[in-house]
Amino acid sequence: MEVHHIGYLVKNIDKSIKSFEALGYDLTTPPTWDDGRKAHLCFLTSGGGTTCVELIAPTPESELYPLLKQYKNTPYHMCYKCDDLDHKIEELKRHKFLLFLKPSPAPVIGETAQVAFLINSNIGIIELLEEQL
Ligand code: NI
User: How far is the CA of 62 from the centre of ligand 1 (A)?
Assistant: First the structure.
Protein backbone atom coordinates (compact mmCIF):
# COMPACT_ATOMS: atom_id res chain seq x y z
CA MET A 1 0.00 0.00 0.00
CA GLU A 2 1.15 3.50 -0.79
CA VAL A 3 1.93 5.74 2.18
CA HIS A 4 -0.21 8.88 2.32
CA HIS A 5 1.42 10.48 5.34
CA ILE A 6 3.27 10.00 8.59
CA GLY A 7 1.35 11.34 11.58
CA TYR A 8 3.15 13.22 14.35
CA LEU A 9 1.78 14.10 17.74
CA VAL A 10 3.00 17.58 18.70
CA LYS A 11 2.55 19.85 21.67
CA ASN A 12 2.81 23.19 19.84
CA ILE A 13 1.77 23.03 16.20
CA ASP A 14 3.22 26.43 15.22
CA LYS A 15 6.65 25.62 16.65
CA SER A 16 6.60 22.18 15.00
CA ILE A 17 5.69 23.73 11.62
CA LYS A 18 8.76 25.97 11.88
CA SER A 19 10.99 22.96 12.61
CA PHE A 20 9.62 21.04 9.62
CA GLU A 21 10.07 24.13 7.42
CA ALA A 22 13.72 24.15 8.49
CA LEU A 23 13.93 20.61 7.07
CA GLY A 24 12.57 21.87 3.74
CA TYR A 25 8.89 21.06 4.18
CA ASP A 26 6.16 23.38 2.86
CA LEU A 27 2.88 23.88 4.67
CA THR A 28 0.16 22.56 2.33
CA THR A 29 -2.83 22.56 4.71
CA PRO A 30 -2.61 25.22 7.44
CA PRO A 31 -3.66 24.33 10.99
CA THR A 32 -7.33 23.36 10.97
CA TRP A 33 -9.59 22.44 13.86
CA ASP A 34 -10.83 18.83 13.71
CA ASP A 35 -13.90 18.70 15.90
CA GLY A 36 -14.10 14.89 15.86
CA ARG A 37 -10.58 14.47 17.18
CA LYS A 38 -10.60 17.65 19.30
CA ALA A 39 -7.22 18.52 17.83
CA HIS A 40 -5.55 20.98 15.49
CA LEU A 41 -4.20 19.30 12.34
CA CYS A 42 -2.01 20.44 9.48
CA PHE A 43 -0.13 18.87 6.59
CA LEU A 44 3.33 19.62 5.20
CA THR A 45 5.08 18.09 2.21
CA SER A 46 8.61 17.91 0.91
CA GLY A 47 10.34 16.48 -2.13
CA GLY A 48 7.75 17.94 -4.48
CA GLY A 49 4.94 16.27 -2.56
CA THR A 50 6.51 12.81 -2.29
CA THR A 51 6.74 12.97 1.51
CA CYS A 52 3.81 14.15 3.57
CA VAL A 53 3.61 14.63 7.31
CA GLU A 54 0.51 15.34 9.38
CA LEU A 55 0.94 17.23 12.63
CA ILE A 56 -1.72 16.60 15.27
CA ALA A 57 -1.89 18.82 18.34
CA PRO A 58 -4.52 17.32 20.65
CA THR A 59 -6.32 19.43 23.24
CA PRO A 60 -6.85 17.97 26.74
CA GLU A 61 -10.38 16.93 25.64
CA SER A 62 -8.99 14.76 22.83
CA GLU A 63 -8.81 10.99 23.09
CA LEU A 64 -5.27 11.39 21.67
CA TYR A 65 -4.13 13.56 24.57
CA PRO A 66 -2.94 10.63 26.74
CA LEU A 67 -0.73 9.51 23.84
CA LEU A 68 0.83 12.97 23.64
CA LYS A 69 1.45 12.91 27.40
CA GLN A 70 3.12 9.53 27.09
CA TYR A 71 5.19 10.02 23.93
CA LYS A 72 5.74 13.83 23.72
CA ASN A 73 6.55 15.04 20.19
CA THR A 74 6.76 11.87 18.13
CA PRO A 75 5.68 10.12 14.94
CA TYR A 76 2.94 7.72 15.96
CA HIS A 77 1.22 6.42 12.85
CA MET A 78 1.75 5.73 9.17
CA CYS A 79 -1.28 6.31 6.97
CA TYR A 80 -1.78 3.98 4.00
CA LYS A 81 -4.07 4.56 1.03
CA CYS A 82 -6.53 1.84 0.10
CA ASP A 83 -9.34 1.44 -2.42
CA ASP A 84 -11.87 -0.24 -0.14
CA LEU A 85 -11.65 0.58 3.55
CA ASP A 86 -14.07 -2.07 4.83
CA HIS A 87 -12.45 -4.79 2.75
CA LYS A 88 -8.93 -3.86 3.90
CA ILE A 89 -10.01 -3.73 7.55
CA GLU A 90 -11.45 -7.24 7.32
CA GLU A 91 -8.27 -8.47 5.65
CA LEU A 92 -6.00 -6.93 8.31
CA LYS A 93 -8.15 -8.27 11.16
CA ARG A 94 -7.12 -11.72 9.97
CA HIS A 95 -3.49 -10.62 10.51
CA LYS A 96 -3.96 -9.54 14.14
CA PHE A 97 -4.74 -5.90 13.51
CA LEU A 98 -7.39 -4.58 15.87
CA LEU A 99 -9.75 -1.86 14.67
CA PHE A 100 -9.95 0.81 17.38
CA LEU A 101 -11.35 3.76 15.46
CA LYS A 102 -14.09 2.90 12.97
CA PRO A 103 -14.20 4.57 9.53
CA SER A 104 -15.04 8.23 9.93
CA PRO A 105 -14.80 11.35 7.74
CA ALA A 106 -11.46 13.15 7.55
CA PRO A 107 -12.50 16.53 6.11
CA VAL A 108 -9.01 17.98 6.53
CA ILE A 109 -7.72 15.43 3.98
CA GLY A 110 -10.61 15.75 1.55
CA GLU A 111 -14.39 16.04 1.21
CA THR A 112 -14.82 12.33 0.53
CA ALA A 113 -11.95 11.06 2.70
CA GLN A 114 -12.68 8.34 5.25
CA VAL A 115 -10.08 7.06 7.69
CA ALA A 116 -9.88 4.23 10.20
CA PHE A 117 -7.23 3.38 12.79
CA LEU A 118 -5.93 -0.06 13.65
CA ILE A 119 -3.33 -1.31 16.07
CA ASN A 120 -1.03 -4.30 15.86
CA SER A 121 1.14 -5.47 18.74
CA ASN A 122 4.22 -5.80 16.49
CA ILE A 123 4.14 -2.45 14.68
CA GLY A 124 1.82 -0.15 16.61
CA ILE A 125 -0.78 2.16 15.09
CA ILE A 126 -1.65 2.46 11.41
CA GLU A 127 -4.25 4.58 9.65
CA LEU A 128 -6.11 3.54 6.51
CA LEU A 129 -7.41 6.16 4.09
CA GLU A 130 -10.01 5.75 1.37
CA GLU A 131 -10.64 8.71 -0.86
CA GLN A 132 -13.36 8.65 -3.52
CA LEU A 133 -11.97 10.61 -6.45
NI1 NI B 1 -3.09 10.56 9.97
Answer: 15
